[in-house]
Amino acid sequence: MTGRPGRFITLEGGEGVGKSTQLAALATALRARGIDLIVTREPGGSEGAEAIRRLLLEGDAGRWGPRAEALLFAAARADHLEKTILPALAAGQWVLSDRYLDSSRAYQSGASGLEDADILTLHRIGSEGRLPDRTLLLQLPEAEATRRASLRDRGDSDRIGGRDAAYHARVAAAFAQYAAGDPQRFRAIDATGAPDAVTARLLDALADLTP
Length: 211
Ligand SMILES: Nc1ncnc2c1ncn2[C@@H]1O[C@H](COP(=O)(O)OP(=O)(O)O)[C@@H](O)[C@H]1O
Ligand SMILES: Cc1cn([C@H]2C[C@H](O)[C@@H](COP(=O)(O)OP(=O)(O)O)O2)c(=O)[nH]c1=O
Known about the structure:
Elements: E1 8-12, H1 19-32, E2 37-41, H2 47-57, H3 66-90, E3 94-98, H4 101-111, H5 116-127, E4 134-139, H6 142-153, H7 165-181, E5 186-190, H8 195-204
Parallel strand pairs: 1-3, 1-4, 2-3, 4-5
Helix pairs in contact: 1-8, 2-3, 3-5, 4-5, 4-7
Bound molecules: adenosine-5'-diphosphate and thymidine-5'-diphosphate.
């Protein structure tokens, strides 16, 4: 126990912007400041949600339509919140999550055409509308994000990562729009340059929350 309230921090952005890399670096830097935290991810982060992750990311491109996909992400999130995130916060830990609600807003709404209000309704039903204390949106020029993601995946991307460039451009635009609409919760972070420089920007964007 830290004696202070746990904070719920999410990292968001398109494929290959450096979320996983930065989550690990951020966890190390925050632990060095004495913060007790857990690192988690979506889709996944609990036993049930990891099972739903496999349903969502494996199989043919057409395995799920946009509506079934949105419901599965919301179901996975409900389980993740109940089993992993809320217990950690209640114990005073910080929670750092690689993706959360805003990915559903960007991918299933912004890029797949469902209404943002409907994604938020699913979130209210599944997860009592719980929002992060801070959302760090990593942003990269499209060409650099594609280069990094393809170096990592070597042509073996998942059902959603493998969608076309126009889809991923809509995802990036939707993220930017949501961030601009809620400057209190979001911080847009320049993800170009060396990993250490990006981590320093992320820590700056948490300065008002860190002890
Ligand atoms: N600042 C950086 N500069 C260059 N390459 C990076 C940087 N950060 C991450 N990478 C590399 O880019 C790829 C995608 O990074 P990753 O953290 O997996 O992104 P995401 O989780 O957002 O998809 C990985 O191969 C990673 O090693
Ligand atoms: C959490 C979430 C993820 N996704 C997508 C984004 C990714 O393509 C995929 C998760 O794959 P993952 O490998 O975890 O992400 P990344 O490619 O960023 O390392 O699921 C949604 O479409 N909606 C959501 O709500």
